[in-house]
Specification:
Jelly Rolls; about 110 residues; 1 helix; seven-stranded antiparallel sheet; mainly beta
Length: about 110
């Protein structure tokens, strides 16, 4: 259960995310994904790239570097990462955000036992 998101979101499948301190709930479509993230102040997420990504911050704060340009994003701020563009992030405080991924298989549901 999340302290921020309602059950409508937390009843979605939880995404299998390979970072400690990061949770996400997955809304899956045939050609894209939307992930509702809850991210602790984990520090740096290494530079990487993938398909197109658009997101918005609901609460918290992060620094996002897109193509060597770093900006700080807070509540209400949105960002866009073009496909195959190198980007990285630093999570300064606990942050809740939503990302739209053009990659339909960016994340997979967690396996339940």
């Amino acid at each position: 259960m999340s302290e921020f998101y309602p059950e409508t979101i937390t009843n979605l499948p939880e995404a299998d995310i390979p970072f400690d301190g990061v949770r996400g709930w997955l809304s899956q479509s045939e050609n894209h994904q939307i992930v509702f993230f809850e991210i602790e102040a984990i520090g740096d997420v290494a530079e990487h790239k993938h398909g197109t990504q658009w997101g918005t911050v609901f609460e918290g704060e992060m620094k996002l570097t897109i193509d060597n340009v770093t900006k700080t994003y807070r509540k209400g701020d949105s960002y866009f990462v073009q496909a195959n563009t190198l980007h990285s992030a630093t999570f300064i405080k606990k942050t809740w955000l939503m990302d739209f991924f053009a990659d339909k298989n960016r994340y997979f549901p967690k396996k339940t036992s």
